[in-house]
Specification:
Number of strands of chain B: 11
Radius of gyration of chain B: 13 Å
Distance between the termini of chain A: 37 Å
Number of helices of chain B: 0
Radius of gyration of chain A: 14 Å
Strand content of chain B: over 45%
Helix content of chain A: under 10%
Number of helices of chain A: 0
Oligomer: heterodimer
Distance between the termini of chain B: 36 Å
Low-confidence stretches of chain A: none
Order of helices and strands of chain A: EEEEEEEEEEEEE
Strand content of chain A: over 45%
Structural class of chain A: mainly beta
Low-confidence stretches of chain B: none
Chain lengths: 118, 109
């Protein structure tokens, strides 16, 4: 149980175009989803937290208009990188949480999406 | 400095025990986690420990928590080649995970 998928696993796009990444919880309802960005040999940096049906909460320094997040249903969240530039190239990972356990979320991670902007 | 710190690399011989250390600054974390990441993949939750515990054992994995020193460790007994990966420790503050930079563990025959 607790499987999270991401699509696509790899994407190459041209500078100036937009690209959408999907995150799905396959066997549970995700009340909360998280989007992370990971640079090579570095840690994961939280970009935003999204709850189904409401606006995402972005971390400081993350551009809301650049990284559009939609959490339209309890099993799907999307991240759209708008007007992509080479510096947006990265590994994007989502996680989904079915529950709030005390003050912590039980997070299950997707396999990640490698974005390369040429 | 970083909120969560880990050594970056560990080499261990197959069959030996691995110990990965982590220090953190956020004392409000309810849970502390260890995740495993294999090349090109997402994170797999290995184990976690509640902040009022000082030890948790789960098969080959032993987590030790020294809350006073804000030190967390993960011991892998009888390390296998399949244990080669990057291991992240993470603290948790109201759902926000703060990760260390990860420790790359290389298991040699």
């Amino acid at each position: 149980g607790a499987v999270v998928s991401q699509h696509p696993s790899r994407v190459i796009c041209k500078s100036g175009t937009s690209v959408k990444i999907e995150c799905r919880s396959l066997d549970f309802q995700a009340t909360t989803m998280f989007w992370y960005r990971q640079f090579p040999k570095q840690s994961l940096m939280l970009m935003a937290t999204s709850n189904e049906g409401s606006k995402a909460t972005y971390e400081q320094g993350v551009e809301k208009d650049k990284f559009l997040i939609n959490h339209a249903s309890l099993t799907l969240s999307t991240l759209t990188v708008t007007s992509a530039h080479p510096e947006d190239s990265s590994f994007y990972i989502c996680s989904a949480s079915p529950t709030l356990r005390g003050s912590s979320y039980e997070q299950y991670f997707g396999p990640g999406t490698r974005l390369t902007v040429t | 400095g970083e909120d969560v710190e880990q050594s970056l690399f560990l080499s261990v011989r197959e069959g030996d025990s691995s110990v990965i250390n982590c220090t953190y600054t956020d004392s409000s974390s309810t849970y502390l986690y260890w995740y495993k990441q294999e090349p090109g993949a997402g994170l797999q939750l290995l184990t976690y420990i509640f902040s009022n515990m000082d030890m948790k054992q789960d098969q080959r994995l032993t987590v030790l928590l020294n809350k006073k020193d804000k030190h967390l460790s993960l011991r892998i007994a009888d390390t296998q080649t399949g244990d080669s990966a990057i291991y992240f420790c993470a603290t948790d503050s109201w759902g926000k995970l703060q990760f260390g930079a990860g420790t790359q563990v290389v298991v040699t025959p």
